[in-house]
Amino acid sequence: MYRFLLSRQWVILTLISLLLIPTMIRLGFWQKHRYEERSARNALVAEALNAKPVPVEQVTEPGHGVTRKERYHTVTATGTFDTADEVVVRRRTNSDDEVGYHVLTPFVLADGKVLLVNRGWISSDGPSQTAFPKVPAPPGGQVTIQGRLMPDETTAASGIKDIKGLPARQIMLINSEEQARRLGKQVLGGYIQQTAPEPKGATPEQISDPGKEDAPLNYAYMIQWWLFAAGVPYGWYVLVRREARAREEAAKEQPAAEAEPAAAV
Question: Could you tell me if 121 and 146 are in contact, meaning their C-beta atoms sit under 8 angstroms apart?
């Protein structure tokens, strides 16, 4: 009754089923790892955002690489903005996905070290892409600021190509080592996204808090793939039984069909 399983069609179908099961199981484990990674990332971000603000020089120093645990930690700094060496970061978007610039202003601390401050987003509605845009001035004199500590940007991490030969005072990536060479000063590792004080007129538009990654979605995909893996052998079994019944019914009908002409004679 089940000799049809040796046919070419059923051998191919069975092999495909056997390949699908471990593939779907592996995809389920991959989604499990993504769920765990995203959950851990969300926990780190929440811990950093909720931590008590500390002076920036307690967390970073010149040449320091900001770690994943330090990222988004709120830090404070007291000093003065150096608008003469201010630059803009090209091809950045705001919360509405409008393309513009981020304003990167050196912030000189009391000991002469420099903290790079991303003051936020401005529109690129200028006379041209080569001209330096009109940037709202930061507070003058000595001021205390607060912001989220961020690691240096790289092409590998961000996917942004570090294009050379840009117009004056325009950059693609925020990198403390490159800015230290440009400024000829000691620059603290990483940079901060300024959160306080808020700018007058709400411009530059400060960067919003990082959102949570959708870890539960990966968990749902994990369950889905494993259900698919369990469903493959069940589906194969249903198809086999259906084929066997169809062949069994065809075999019963065949003798009856052959007997009818004999009865008529």
Answer: no
**What's the burial of 109, exposed, middle or buried (CB within 10 Å: 0-12/13-18/19+)?**
middle
| Tens digits of residue pLDDT in 174-208 | 999 999 999 999 999 999 999 999 998 889 999 98
Phi, psi of 80 (to 5 degrees): -130, 145
pLDDT of amino acid 1: 66
Other CB atoms within 10 A of residue 12 CB: 10
8 Å CB contact between 55 and 77: yes
Of 202 and 120, more confident: 120
Residue 188's Cβ-count burial label (10 Å; 0-12, 13-18, 19+) is buried
Distances (CA, A) of 61 to 55, 85, 105, 166, 190: 11, 20, 18, 28, 9
* pLDDT per residue as tens digits for the range 133-165: 999 999 999 999 999 999 999 999 899 999 989
Cα 127 to Cα 224: distance, rounded to the nearest angstrom: 52
Q: Which of 148, 73, 62 is nearest to 109 (CA)?
A: 62
pLDDT band at residue 250 under the 50/70/90 scheme: confident
Cα dist. 207→178, 200, 241, 246 in Å? 23, 15, 61, 66
pLDDT of residue 265: 43
